Amino acid sequence: ADEDDHLDYLFKLVIVGDSGVGKTSLLLRYVDQVFSETFISTIGVDFKIRTVVINGKRIKLQIWDTAGQERFKHIVSTFYRNANSVILVYDVTDSDTYLSVQHKWLSDVNNYAGNKVRRVLVGNKCDLASSRQVPVESGKAFAESVGMMHIETSAKTAENLDKLFVDLVVDLMEVF
Ligand code: GDP
Ligand code: MG
Asked: pLDDT at position 151, please?
């Protein structure tokens, strides 16, 4: 293969969380640099790929979205298979979605993902400051109590999007 094609790492990341928290928006913003105000019911594919260079290493990220399944039932367990990381997303303007992460999504991850999986808690829509329901300190404290990283993002403004993935990839390169 061409020297430029070499890869140091390939990581599978999966994004979970309640419908409407912005999972698809985060994926489209990060991979395609676009944002839409309308609900994106499906992106038509199961995952998107982005290749990044971090600390001199070439890393291919295969990032899985739920294709709307979260509206009907728990995500099937095979979704979590071989995931290096699970990104658990809530909406900082909707405390129900934050409770869901704690009571539903995290237990699914703990039941179905491998024991080395790295979990990241993401509070999305941090641009909507005036509607905030979940304080940043709550998210931080909860994540810390279960050994997860925590960050707040906006798929709309792209705030902290690169930081989310860089911090995650640096962590993954140490573990895998
Ligand atoms: P999903 O069901 O979790 O995939 O959520 P979507 O990505 O479809 O987003 C649901 C709605 O929230 C859409 O109207 C998006 O435009 C909106 N949305 C997603 N992320 C953000 C964000 O960071 N800020 C704001 N203001 N709106 C967002
Ligand atoms: Mg979606």
From this structure: 98
